[in-house]
Amino acid sequence: MGLILTALLLPALVGSVLILGAHRLPARAAGGLALLASAGALVATIAAIGTGARIAREWIPELGFTWIFFSDQISAPLLLLTAGITLLVVVHGLRHRPAGGPAGLYFGLILLIDCGALATFWTGDLIVFFIAFEVVLVPMWVLIHRFGDAHDPGARREAAIRFVLFTALGSSLMLAGILTLVSASDSSAMGSILSSGLSSDTQMVAAGLLVLGLAVKVPIFPLHSWLPPAHTIAPTGGSVLLAAILLKMGTYGLIRLPMALTPDGFARVAPVLAMFGVVGIVWGALVCLVERDLKRLIAYSSVAHMGFVALALGTNSALGLQAALVANVAHGLISALLFFVVGGLKERWGSVDLGQLRPALRETWPALGFALMVGLAGSLALPGLASFWGEFLAITAAWQPPPSPAGLPAAGGLLEQVGWFAYVPPGPVSAGLLRGLAVLAALGAVLAAAYSLRVARLVWMGDPAPRDRDGDATGTELFVIVVLVVAIVVLGLLPYLVYPGSSVMVAGL
Amino acid sequence: MTPNLVTIDWLVLAPVLAPALGALVVLLADALAPRARGAHLVIALMALGAGLGALPYAVTTATPARTLCLTGPQARCFYESGPWGLGLQALALGGALLVLLMLGPGTRHLDRAQRGGPAVTVALVLTATAGAVMVPAARDLPAWLVAIELATLPAVALVALSRGRGAEGGALALLMVALTSFAFLAVGVSLWLLATGDATFATDTLRTAFDDPARHRALLLAILFLLAGLGFKLSAVPFHMWTPQAFVVADEPVAAFLATVSKAAALGAAIVMLAPLIALNAADDPRAQSIRLVLGVLAVASMTLGNVVALRADDPVRLLAWSTIAQAGWVLLPLAMLTPTAVSASVAYLLAYAVGTLAVFAVAAAVHSASEGAGERSLTAYAGLARRSPLLALVLGLGLLTLAGLPPAVIGVVAKVVALQPVVAAGQWWLVAAAVVNIVVGIAVYLRWLLVVIRPGEAAGATRVPVRLDPGLRVALALLASALLVLSLAPGLLIGFVR
Fold it and tell me: Which among A398, A402, A497, B399 is placed 20 to 30 Å from B240, CA to CA?
């Protein structure tokens, strides 16, 4: 129990201290404190997951709000991803801190985002989930506004406020959905809502509101328009946190709230979710084919990748759930790698305009070039890398007709334990529609190959040029890159590390 | 032994009597020892402290605590204070205490002293507070009406005595509104009397009137008149226009008084009037549909117009005035459901809002020097505040985020959750939709201010020296900052208090 609190309070406390004392603390001390806090949070997270720590107590009994914190197979990989990526961002910031404010402020904001994201993944209470969801807003707003792209203050302000307002709109809609559930069951603990037997109408309303609200955060086409400016303008560390962690809060919310708590309602919304997910896949890929700004291109590729997660969830099947979980973590690692590399390139070049002719990356800076190639290979879902499993399984789940309830064994067999909650496989969704979507998604995967190779051709390949040893990846960057590449390859070879159940399913194919 | 006509428990009445007596003592002291200027503030703080100290007694005696009860078979009490009433009384007393600390009448450090001298300021604040504490506990029409006016008129004088240019004009606007709203209330009260034949807000007589078709209409009309009259006091659109006029010319602490203590009185009055209706299960009664609709429309109009205009305001006090209008909408939103939960939700929201608003006003009083009056204040004065004075920026940030409903000010988030819950539970989706949009617009309003605070650039305003803080203001800032921090860690303290 204490371990979870340590994991949550350590970044929150140290972050607050760093922000308040930002103008007095020397940069080295601030960096050191942040390193200790984020490493401590990672260790405490690992230990808490390992020991199965759990907190359950009342918070505001008058309203039925509770402090429930726990981890299971769904949240554990995301907890580790959050704590790990934050540590990498802090390490990266020790050497490559963006200008725009004191070190204490930069690291403090990162730690507050860490705390909010960890709390989102730890909690088992809907209201606490909502609050944790909102905790990341203000720090990320300040991070983009203060430390973003130095070239254009107007764009920075615009991107930052657009991020806050879009996300706040999404979370307010989600709050309406949450309150529907809380009002119907007089408690905000996920467990008691699950066992309260919600009526079909309540489920429908709640699922609709929850999916709509979370779709902004994921983001799902056409609610994605906050993402490209935010990812493009944010400093390298901010882009990494946005892509690797904040987007995962949206998909995790989709799994944890509408899918788990309102299965009947979600079954009816799911086909719509799948459809918009596929539109996002194709749309994102098409934009990537013509986009000139490399950072913005990576941002749009995130829209496409999150489209795969939405498709997987939209199949509303056990296989789809597994695909979503794997794709989530894979995208977290790969987008982090890509944003670290592209952010580094932007630092060096001043801009990442693809229209500008530059010496070939493989010749001048081979280490950065290698990292970029791994990231791009991951982006096109090359077999053997982490992202392959997520997208492959998502398409498979959409192609396989979901088992009709009649075809399944008796009621007892309907309940499949996914983590701590009972996940009920839904009734039949239109199998034809899903097959069509699977074809389109596969087309999107082909387009992903096309744009990845386009970037490789424009940036990585080119005429021979002298090698520039000093400009290549610094030691800090190398460390970050190696950790991420190893994680991507290991996860590609052993995807069941993320989700034990998926090994069973893959073996069964 | 002759039986008393009325039983009185003086300790239950103490929250009202303490500030009223305090005002008398201050005026006496001023007459006897005109030179002892420092004593007034001390007397006032002691009086308000005594009032606050007496509240726990009312909590422990009974729920609700009653006194001024008629003896006999139909024992009816004219003073009754349940959990929500105690919450509002605590807000009125605590708010007045903080406002007095900010004003610091009679202290040597201050050049903020109002015209008219410290004794007048202190007496006016105490009198208005006594009225505001009385309102939520009044159960008979005359006392209710008198208490509302007692809470209003001294506030008009406080505005008139402010230093800023045009203070008299603002006070005049406020006075006109006070008179108009009194007219509405008087008509409403007489209609109520006509419909129910009872000079108290009692459920049984209301039920008879409600069920009688002939009297039902008169009763509805009475409630609508009363709501209109209270709409002025609450700054609900379309009765809001006086708010920015009075706020910008008033001293910042006086504006804070109008935004918090006066609002506690106004909400208390509204709940006292609606309580018998709520006890009738008006939430599900189609005959009360029009009342729910009117309240809902008032709520949506207030929050929408308030937020939209606040988005454009450059004078921080004008921004706060429109923010008060918007927040009045949030206070009315749950009340429009006419359920018991909605009442406590409304009060809880008002409490959270008041703490946030007082914090912002306290920082505004510190940042804007005494020479800056109406029309000279600008948001640019806050440029680089985070660098110049991190602690002031922290209090301001927490206050603004409380009003916006964003973490780390968890109390603001919980307040929004609490206010929205009855509306969602009642399935009033048009209100939910309006509220969701207004959450987003509201965030834009307050982040716009916060943006100036965290702006790195050394704007013109950033070069000015940090303001020397008066000791009273320091204490007020410290109290408000710790209140916001404690409530953000344990919002249950506030929620549990009013349930």
Answer: B399
